[in-house]
Fold these 4 entries.
Entry 1:
Amino acid sequence: MPLSVGDKLGPYEILAPLGAGGMGEVYRGRDTKLDREVAVKVLPGALARDPERLARFEREAKVLASLNHPNIAQIYGVQEAEGYQALVMELVPGQTLAARIKTGAIPLDESLRLSAQMVDALGAAHDKGITHRDLKPANVMITPEGTVKVLDFRLAAMAPASGDASGATNSPTFTMSPTSAGMIMGTAPYMRPEQARGSQADRRSDIFSFGVVLFEMLTGRQLFHGETVSDILASVLKDEPNLDSVPEKVRPLLKRCLEKDPKKRLQAIGDWDLLLAESGAGSQPAAASQAAKKIAIAAAAVFALAAIALGFGFYRATRPVEKPLIRINADLGPDAVAGANITVAISPDGKRIAFPMRGPGGKQQLATRLLDQATPTLLSGTDNAADPFFSPDGQWIGFFAENKLKKISVLGGAALALCDTSGPRGASWGEDGTIIATLSSAVGVGLSRVSDAGGQPQTLTKPQDKGELYQRWPQLLPGGNAVLFSGAAVASNWDNESVEVLALKNGALKAGEIKILVRGGYFPHYLPPASSGGIGHLVYLHEGVLLGVPFDPVKLELRGTPAPLLEDVAGNTTFGGGQFDVSRTGSLVYLAGKSGGGANFPVLWMDSSGKTEPLQAKPGDYATPRFSPDGN
């Protein structure tokens, strides 16, 4: 029987029904442990006793768990209680693409913007060998911010269940076995010819469905018609699509997507841009193609945040220039915030920056900006955010806020809490789905590991074991075998402390072994080599100067003498944080200025009415004020 409002499945409270179908019911729920709303997809007891249905349900959970992408609805977990099996998933607000199309044809620019996000989602699935097999407007959500979320990967399972097929043009997802030759799975108007024949589906099947969906977006009507499912399938198999009603510039793309023969069809969904570019209908401005060759600079208040396309050629003291040095300054406006620690982060591909910015009501929030665009975009749900860092694929931003380590899609949406923190000091996101972080500023707190899906952190180091007080600002090396960090025995001035490396796996060092690389520096980053197999560089701060030294990330050893690269790079010698970041493509973004202690604040008296007056007129590096016992 259906669940009722107020029912609970473990820690999940049912708030309202959202919909129902052949695979069960979907509810709006609340996670009582993390105090967030979720979608609860329930497989009732009767279906849970069907081995094939249960296998498909479990397959969907595993498929979603393997996909971590901002345009795919995220799974939080599986819950079994009271005879029900449930998937607990991200609750995606907004409307389906099907509902949007019902209001009329979608303009070309908007269609391409939405399609680009669908392509990214499908491409991520295809890269993992996963074919959606039921792409249709009803399985695509559009959030109020315009973010696309692809839903319902249950037909990605290879073992379908048998069932009845009914309906026609608006038929639900169905499975039928007309002959012993094969199984037909999908939704009739969006089915691919090879699926309609019962043949094996692969990623090219999704490409056909993408073409059908794009046609419907541009015209407001379905491509294949018929009074019954059989009529529609016959149309899919035999009818050549008439593309006269779609914009001319998109026809070459649709023609390649809608080829009946998979061998003649577009072979990789990610190649759609090539066809658009050839016909002049590209989804991005022409300047976007230059984004990897240059990078902008941010400014906050009176500070200048510089970005340099290093091209791995700024190490003039140790190696010849391989690419020209490009330096660009740009103003992010008066609302950008220059924090005491990291002011800005740059994505691994060097195309996007993230930084704190004052939002509505003066609240500090994260903003993101593509470097070929002039206007940053605030990410709602990131109040009081600081110290951003990117996921390896550049699709997520990690940050600290409200005593939590959180993550959010670069395109916006819900900010997801991963674990608790207390005065955190930096984090780095690994390719294996783990985050290495310093979760507290307290003495004796070292590095921890936490899953990018959330959970209980695992302690990796204890500073006292090395005779230190602090271990901060971790930076994972490529491959995730080791992590750089700043270590301090005293920490009165991080200029006098150490750059160290911790082995996470056995290799040049034993797993858990720590090696000091540099004495007299802090806030290390690794810059990969210009070509594979080469030696990269370790860069770090000392007395406001950015220094670099050749570094072997496999043997975990320096291969030369440190040389100065840039002067006047801002840093914080009290917390050990530097105000710069580097991308894998050789771009550096930094805040120009002298290194020093924490941010300067005034100290004020405030009476019970809220009236204030200066206690110390000159702002300074003050923190944690406390009254004496007698209150004077």
Entry 2:
Amino acid sequence: MRREEAATVAASEPAAEAAQAAELRAGAREPVELAEALLRPSSVALIGVGDDPDQAQGRPLRLLRRHGFQGAIYPIDPSRRLVQGARAWPTLAALPGPVDHALILLDGDAAIDAVEDCGRVRIPVVTLHSTLAPKSSMTRLLQIERLRAVAHQHGVRVLGPGSSGIVVPQTGLALTTEPAFAAREMNAGRFVVLSHGGSAMGALFSRGAARDLGFAALISLGGEVDLSLGEIGSRAADDADVDAFLLFLHELHHTAALARFAAKAHDAGKPIIAYKLLPDAAARPPAEPAGAAAEAFFSAHGIVRVDQFETLLELAPMMVRRRPGRGRAAALVSTAECAGSLVADRLARLGVAVDGLDHLARERLAQQDVALGDHAVADISAAPKPEALRAVLDEALGAPNSDVVLAVLGAGAEFDPEGAVAPVVAAAQHADKPLAALVVPEAPEALRLLSGAGIAAFRTPEAAADGLRAFLAWTPPSAPAILWEDEAPRSGHRVLHAGQAMQIFRLLGIPIPTMLWVRRGAPMPKALPFPPPYVVKALSPDIEHRIDIGGMALGLETITAVQVAAHDIVERVGAARPDAFLDGLMVQRLERGLAEVAITFRRDPEAGPVVTLAMGEGISEIYGDRAVRLAPIDRATAYAMIDEVKGLARIRGHRRRPRGDLDTLAQALVAMSFFALITAPRVLAAAVDPLLVRAEGEGAVALDGWMKTE
């Protein structure tokens, strides 16, 4: 049976149905490409569909009808002959023709049973709306394991679990439970939404529809147990009808596939914009600000991250048919003085420069009776005539000192939307750099006109500033050649204290001081092989911050002072942490230099191996002043990280201060990042904290550290 014929089957004579069902059970059907079955199915089955069209289980049938899906729709319900007035089929095996895509609306083990049923009749793709047992429960782990086994055995690709479905406006495919798609008509467009949250997918659709903005597809990813964002995105990147991708993410999964998707989209000239929820505080170290590892992943792979949900939708037109390249500054042209100042203020808080027009541009405008003040914002609110706005926009777009221009439109956008928008649209048609607009009043018609002209239109100063910041920070992919597949968590680990870890750091080429390790129970020597002053530290794999419990003594000048300090440290540590294993004491010479930094390596549960540079002594925990990159890194990246940490200005020669040995610091960063390559035993985390940086040419020395391995 040809797929074109099967797609139009709605009912037939009993004998014909039996023959076709037998053919289906025998497996006689043409193979269907994954992208076709996922996004352009000719037939869909709704397993567990409900009779109430206003409830989640009944909504997919209602939406498919409402939006004019032309393929065959097969409700599956063994207890009813009719569902919402349509014929219901008792089983998949009883259907009169092949099915490309099934939506399963059952829960728990019944949903997995339904996946197995789909596999038996060779349905290639299943969207699993179903919920499984709660996260982290043993029942859920067993369900996921069984789901993967069933899918693999039968060759079924699974979207979900917890997916709210797939929407393709051009074909009327509204295979979703989301109520937002019941309230508005669907417009076809050129953006693809890939969202972990179904409600976020619905919100982006409804906000876009309010501006007549259409979508090529909207896909709710769910738990990504099988089909991943990266795999789906890579296939969609081949589609000539797709211009950009909008991602709403809870977590990063299948990062190697996501990286391949990002590279493919970049090569195709299709930008990716992402809004990601922050990870739980328990999933990141206290010294690392929320989302830093994910931000490093996005930056390395050319994915633009936004901070405002609204920006995710509004920024896309500015990036279409543009190539990444870190920008310098923005230009603001405003017909609403206060709003222009609000955007400029917000940009300043985000570290984005606002460059005004130079004196030659102002003279040319003055000859056209357009007067501007001395402020960076080119404000024409005193006489906001269309011809004045167009003239200033042309000057700003031609100025060499800015990389993006924002037109801030005031009250005229509400009362005369066509007149207010016309100069912006005209200027954009001849612009070599991006031109966006902020519409200050509530002016839906102005927003619709701007969107229709392909101009990025923002509704709030915050979103506009966020969009300009994100665009200027957009860079090409610069990820390391190694792509890390997701690493399954393993139980158990071993912590190495400073005495053990620093010997490994020395093997990596990171200098360490001369030190003496006095084992537990051994007497302190009567003489030391290096001169004072001395430092004494407790060595324990169970104590993270020894100084907090009196486990360290500094600046000791005599061996007697060392012996007394050693006795006191053992007493204090024993009283504060009687459960901790004390492996002895370390005596070092007190070293001096220009600055202390902390270099940390860890395997982030989302982004994979990352290396972090921050100021030492816990300063990063207070100020969040750090640089984070995917590991491993090269020396050029290490120098970029050193430049990024504001506190290191003191050793970069700021105000003629002595320069530190940045070469040795960069080499230490590179060395620590190469823990990413060690697989046996796998290093889970490691830190040199602090690394003392001496004057230029004098090197650096690791004063303390730790390591965690499998």
Entry 3:
Amino acid sequence: MADTEKAGALAHKTSSGHADDAKVDPTQDSLVYVRDADTSSDLLGNGTDAVLAAKMHLINVAIDEMGWTSIQSKLALLNGFGYATDSLLALVPSIVQGQVNYEYPPQASGIFPRGTTIGLYVGLFFGALFWGLFSDAFGRKWAFNSSLFISAIFTCLTAASPNYISVAVFNALLAFGAGGNLILDTTIFLEYLPSRHTWALTALACTWGIGQLIAGLIAWAFVAPDQYNCRQAAGCTRAENMGWRYVYVTTGLLVFVFAALRLIVIRMRETPKFLVAHGRDAEAVETLQLYARQANRPISLTLEALQACGELDPAEVERNSKFTFGGLWSHVKGLFSTPKLAWSTSLVFVAWSIIGLSYALYNVFLPYLLASRGADVGDGSIYTTYRDYAIVNTAGIFGPAIGAALCVIPRFGRRGTIGLGGLVTMAFLIGYTRVKTPAQNLGLNVGTNVALNVAYGCLYAYTPEVLPSAHRATGNALAVMWNRFFGIVSSLVAVYGDIQSTTPTYVTAGLMGSLAIVAFLFPFEPLGKRSS
């Protein structure tokens, strides 16, 4: 009897959806016939492709059998570098904006005054689209290994900019490289995570706060001191205004170190879920068996078991493997393949749009808010502004850690944690408008940033969990693109509105309240489920 026939005859049905679901005694002549497997623990179910769902079920079982190993520990570190880079590079242009404007007055040249920040978000926008489509078509590995190098090169080159336009262009180019980080980091990490440890995806966002802290510390070192910076546009020369250049060079070198470590610490292999979605079952099994041997953990997955699930539609696999608009459209359609998935995807995009505008209004322009409110209560000095900025962002590191603890509690889950983070952020922001002392100014900003990072960190984790693996990077990319688009909108608000008033604070508070409503409407709760 052929192996595939034995698979059907000796079906081993699963029931609990945990690590023991599909264990096969290697001494026995039996295989897992996953067409009959209980996939009730799989978050998205079979969707429209039962064969792919069955194969993903087996991959999930194998990863659960291995459990947490050194592979996940290394990926947590290396993907954390991407998170830190994204937040670091997102904040640097806004931090140095004033000093750049002193040296290259945009108004005098008829240039849009926030062109550098808009350049950053344009780069992030198109970077998300490019790296998302690229990694769904060609794999996560190459994008993971190259994107940070691109960011590092253009970040350093920004310091040599001879005029305002070149600063904006280099910001766009460095952001293009960084634009895929949030997409790739969450996608790769999730696709190697055992189901019992998916909380780590939320905790990974702690490194986002570390990136913010690094940005604040670098700014404190080079933008706050008078010896590196002009304090007015009149007579401001390059020699007297090197502080912002030091910020870019220091940041670029740090990102280069992050990029190099990705090549040194781990020899990245393509994720098994990507391989299976592209019909490369043998490579997927080889990868998992290699990691299992390295970790000295037995797994029962065999190539015969995967092949027993059936074959994917060759035409669909080919469409999904093309780096074209047609390939992009194929992945987009996959995100809306069922009514429930379409509702989920739409709400995720809405959530990212909301938080894209609210986070930028609050955090990107936080130095202005701290300075203006600090002045109202007696201390708006540059030194105090950047000191408080560093303290606020240090506290923000703990937001995702709190989110990771809450999201595994049944009464909260992922949806409840995002909603709670939004509501608490709204409360802190409303309270912030009543600040009367320096201590209140700092304390409420600390509380706001922690709560905001609870919501943001959990949304980062929730998004890839509720996307089908074959289209995960594209869905992640489109969500982040909405986020970046509203980052551009926030720059327009900064130009045409008064960001030193309480208006952005009230707007942000309202947006975070609406985020909570959207979170409660999400149709999927990943807690206790396996992602596809």
Entry 4:
Amino acid sequence: MSRRFLVLALVAGVATVALAVPGQALAKNRSAKPADTILTNARICTVNESQPWAKVVAIRGEKIVYVGSGSNTAWRRFVGPETDVVNVHGRLVLPGMVDSHTHPASVAMSSWHVIMPWTYDTTVMLEFVAQYAAEHPVSEVPFIYAEYYPSDLFDTNGPNKAMIDAYVSDRPVLLEDFSDHACWVNSQMLELMGVDKNLPDPVNPDDPAAVFVRDAEGNPTGWVLEGAWRYLADTMYAAIGWWPPANVTPELLYNFTSFLSSKGETAVWDAGGREATFASAAALEAQGKLNMNYYGSKRFYTVADLPENIAILRDWEAKYGSNHVHLDAMKFFLDGTNEFGTSAVLEPFIVGENDYGELRMSEDDLTTCMLMLNDEDLDLHIHLVGDRAFRVACNAVERARAELGEAWRIQVTLTHDELIDPADMPRVAELGIILNWTPHWSGGYFGTMSADWLGYERFDRMYQFNPIIASGGIVDYGSDVVSQYEAARADPFFGMQVGHTRVDPEYPMQPGPGTVPLTYMREPASACLSLEDLVEGYTLNGAIQLRMADQAGSIEVGKLANMALLNMDLFSVPDYEIQNVEPEAVIFEGKVVHGTLMLP
């Protein structure tokens, strides 16, 4: 287990205290107050450097009161007439896990989307859409929203509206790209939104990457980047007299949060920022059905609109904040994606001339935003994928910290971080930045389209986090799922398998130039993450990002009793069976919220 546990806790401003072996205990005398539940004969991965492994854990109320080796009788001091002493027969126990970046609202609201067959054959795809349209008349389905087509299906010119028109032209049709940063629409949809050669791009000046791709004459081709269509969606909906579900409900949100809970997640960070989502989370808590800590954020676009969006976040916190619902961070998109050449890079793309991508905010303005957020005691979560965006974000943190000195308080998390210049990797630890990654992307999830823009030398340098971990940087993990289509990939054990092997069992990497055919691993093998680092990232490091490492993230005396009892030992199962690991019981704040401790 990593030797960074205590260091990481100190970075987060957390003071942890470990009592001496044979076990940690709140009570030192032989008449300790009885525990409610004691798990014995366990294999407990504590994620606590002072006591990495244990065999016994005792729980009283919401808290852990004893963690010990089991080689002595110290734990028996916590046994009373009402104590449930459970022999778990050597099963692995992990701390409750954290999904540090995901989109519950998008998952909840996507239930009406059409799921297409996964194929690289556009004829098969479009025939499926045509058949769906034939079976569902316009009166029943006035707008077809289907997902997904592979991100590397087309070259850098993208798809064309005429291809869909040949199959479905009686209603608007949108086919979503696998990255969720692009889509392909038909002529009917463009016309209903009023998109033609006379409509300027971007449709929202504060979101310059959101554009309708044009041909040489300025006509929209049908390829749409960064959700530009959403700014005109109401025009289309009004024209067809139909609107999709407008708000997240507690019931829709529960479908996803209960799934996360069943996989051992006891906290989540919502990167979406919808008021109805937080209202639904608060409603679930009131009903006793939330069973996790729910953290949220609000997106902003410019320095000018930051104060307004801070005020909105404050309003949401006042309405919905509670013991388990927290809104304490702002989110910003600094660049786009590598798959579509909308990232910000240090060396130009291999497509076009001297194209370095586009930053959505200057270093000066980003520094100003950090200073403003520090005054407000609000943390910052930055979407970025290109190495220039990463450097600019680090520079802004360095400048803001230098200006504020000891008054620097906020926590900056950089999410995705797909391409990082090696010279900038040590800065994560040096600047106290948190790096957030999505392990289930580590294999072939997005194909090789980014190589069309970056070239294979940079493509093979993507997704490199071991040097950052080795230098003491904090790396945590989230699922970043955005639809019901991929919701199952939010399973942290699935993420661990892909992050550890760099092989995606659902969407394996296709061989590229210079690779060995049929290996299907995303090279290089040296970028595979260790299981120890993955567990640490999903538990303690996630708790650090949420500023709750003094309460959760490890199995230690005094912390909340959040843990998962697993059916298999992920450290000993074959690498390609890690995804089959399942919690037999999930404990949140001392209560079993999934499964049972009544084991055979």
